[in-house]
What does this fold into?
Amino acid sequence: MTGTTTKRGQQWRAARVAVALAAVAWLASTPADAKLGSCTDPVVFGTTISETGLFSTLTGNWRKMTEIFADEINKAGGIKLSSCGDKGVPVKFVVYDDQSVPATAVQLYERMASVDQVDFFVGPDWSSIGGPVPPVAERHGIPIVMGNVATPSLYQRGYKWVWGTPAPAVPRWSERYFDMLAHVDPKPKTIMFLTHDNPVMKAITAVWSKKAAAQGIKVVGEEMFSADLKDFTALIAKVRAAKPDIVYISSFDNPSVPLVQQLRQFKVRAMDVHHAMLTGALKKQVGKDLEGMTGELTWFPSVKGPYADLYERVMDRTGITMFDSIWTLARLNSYLVMIQAIEKAGAVDREKVQKALYKGTFKSPAGDIVFDEHGFPDTGAFTIQMQNDKVEVVWPPDVATAKPIWPSPTWQ
It folds into this structure.
């Protein structure tokens, strides 16, 4: 009976995948007539977006954003190819919904390589999907620049066709915040880490607890909490007993909502409460409880780096703000890096683009994206603070929109 049930379950799952693929194929963009080396045909990017399923809340309006990005590039003359006398050729996207399902994503990238015959891959996002998709690029020899795939080990598997633009990268996540801590007065002496039980968040704590200690800030506690924990009374009792100058919350936004609320309810005092992922989604749920807190933001339009105007136009036309959709930068960067790599290669040539991407340096509004030998980027973030219900960039000083309010008066 167990074997029969398992077999039926496998058949049912296979049938569901087949139906899903048929649906997304019908909904997808027109298959491309991609011609490598052409000076007239569009350069075709194949991608999937998690428009439904678990990650769909993180990708609102990204299909429209992708279409607008292509429109803005094409209005500016397209992708410039030196092999075509610097002629600009348009960019075109083939887009599918991977439904937040790794197996579906793999089959869709196979389809884009074999049926749609796209020139290059951009996306996907999320480490759960960014793990199984790269082998498709390897098999077909198609360069892929993924978006929000932040787990470094996924890039360290000997691949030759895979890069990513997660922002920020874990080793640089709070770099500017700790630089700020070295300059504030009074300087914090102790810090406590409260960590969401998640691989990325645990990696952030591992890196930055060591950095704190190296900087002379004593780590007085590291506490872990599950994503479904609602009552933080016991954990907060430990915070109150330790009396850290800084409470560092290493967590995605939604799991930390009750934590932030209860830190306020129990009147925890500190120089600063720092959230590694301070977002519009968190603010919508906790409101004024976010006042005075600091955090990281990958980019803010006031930071006028290369291509900032392009990104602002795309987001304005799409109705997206970076604070509300923090994953947008990495996704747009995957598009922009691929375009720059093609222009460096000078031709729609996969091998030449591969060589251009290897250990390459590329421009973005938030600063240079520098790939290591594994295709992992060197990207940081800006330190922000909620001041008078408004997001302000407070560090580094050369791009700050306001000075940090220190110590945070709302936590005194």
